[in-house]
Amino acid sequence: MPSEKTLARHAALVTRMADTLGVDLDERALRGELSGDEIGDAVLACTGCESPGACDGWLDRHPEGAAQPPRYCRNADLFARLTPG
User: Fold this and answer.
1) How many CB atoms lie within 10 A of CB 61?
2) pLDDT digits over 32-67, tens only?
């Protein structure tokens, strides 16, 4: 199991990625479109990424948002399902 620090870092990355893609994870969970388990699974998937620094950089380069995550995102399928439009 990843450390608390690692989980916190990757939870922040998942949240930033969702925000960048225009996905409100809390709203989707409240509407029943996303479960807490799915969010937890997304964070755990993110912890397996070998390039969290690259993800930070990608997010920094997309302050105005993006239509899709980078190809290497381990949660690309989840975000594709949740991305509006």
Assistant:
1) 10
2) 999 999 999 999 999 999 889 999 999 999 999 999
